[in-house]
Description:
about 80% helix, flat
Amino acid sequence: MIHRIVTLSRYFLRRLLFSLTGLIYILVGLAFWRVAFAPEQRTPDADYYVLVLGLFGAAVTFLVTLSVATRAYQAVNDTLLVRLPSRVEYLTAVLVSALLFATGLQGLIALLARWNGPGIALGQALQIPPIWLSINILAGVLALHASDLVTAGWSRVYVFGLLALFLFGQDANGPISRAMAGLANRLSSLFFRQGWVEPATQLNNFASWSANSGAQVIEQVFGFIFWPFRAIANAIIGGRFDRIQALAPAVLLLYATILFMLAANFFATKDLFLTE
C-alpha cells in the first residue's frame, strides 16, 4: 500500500511541478518573498517571520491541493484509479503530493527570507516545523472537501457552512445572548399569565443569566474550535509555548485526521464521473 501511495504521489507531484500551474505557484511564491521579506530592509521580528510564512504556507497548500485534486479528477487517470484496491490510497496520494509541493515552496521562501532576516533562537527554530506542518495539513484536508474529487452532494456546503456558523457565533455572541434573553423574558411573562410559576421562574433566571454572563459562555462555546489558532498566535507573539499552548499543533492534526476520514468516506462511497 505504501509503495502504491508513494508512486502515485510522485506521479502527481511530477505532473504539477512540470506544468504551467506549478510554475505560476513558484512565481507567486517569489513575488510574495519580494513583497513580504524585501531583502533591502531587515525583517523586523521572528514572530512576523513565523506567522506570515505560516499563513503563506496554509494558503498555498489549500490552492495546490485544489489544483492536484482537479488533475486527479480527470478521466486520463481512470486506469490508475480502477486498479487500486482502495480509493483511499488515491486520495492519500493527492494530499501527500500537494503537501510536498506546498511545503517545499514554503521552505524555499523561508530560506530566502533568512537573507537579512531576523535572528531566530534554536528553541524558536525547533517550534517552527510542527506549527507549519500542522497548519498545512489541515489546510490541505479542507481543500479536499472543497474539491470536486471528494464532494458528495452537499457535503462541502455542510462542512464549510458549519465552520462559518462557528465563526459567526464567535463574533455575534452579544446579539445572540441578547436575543436569547429577550425570548426567555417573553416566554416567562406568558407563563406567568397562564399561572405556570415554576417554568416561568426558570425562564426568568435563564434570561438574567443570558443578559449577564451568557455572551461570554457563547463566545467560549463557538470559539473553542478555533482555540488552537489563537494559542499558536499568542505563543509565537509571546516568544514561548506554555504546556497548554504546546498541544495546539496536535489538536490541529486531530482536526485534520477527523476531516480526512470524513473525506475518505465521501470519496470511497460516491459515484465518480471523471472529467474529460
